[in-house]
Amino acid sequence: MNRATSVVVLVLLAGLGIGATYFAQHTGAPLISAQQRLIDSRNLLDLLAPDSYDNQPLDQPLALEDIRLANSMLLGGYLATKAGQPRAVLLRSQTLGYEGSIELLIAIGANGKLLGVKTLKQSETPALGGKIADWPNAWLQAFTGKSRTDPADTGWALKKDQGQFDQIAGATITSRAVISAVHDALRYFDEHPQALIGSSTHE
Known about the structure:
Largest sheet: 5 strands, antiparallel
Number of strands: 5
Distance between the termini: 81 Å
Radius of gyration: 23 Å
């Protein structure tokens, strides 16, 4: 085989390799996207009871992006509905902990009560503040059923700060950050029901 023929063969093989790679990526992309969406869906929707909504909340994002609140920032959110009626909002909130940012998912029912709180991302100290990443999480479950007015604003603090909540052992800063972020989200919901659930009042 002469040199020119070898070059042609190499070019053809390279072309076939590139074509095969492109074909695999192109045909596999929808499957990968669907699998990632399923993972995201499970991760984001497990705060909601399966029978509490009948839409695809991830297909109904709320018009929220980088909204600065008193102690945190809203990064986005989703609306859950049933029979066309709003049932809950899922708010993605970011706050600053001891080691870095903490991203939370905060589920609030259409009546303004907390359905649950979950940690999506965090970089806190393992075995201390990092415990907020555990799921299910007993400390975060203490917020379920609370609202903007239950407890009153002064109650949204650690017991050591004359509030109503215990702290994660050895993680005062992390605990304060999460409590403040949850309170921020409830306050935002209470002040913007029209934008979030299309109603000027809670159910």
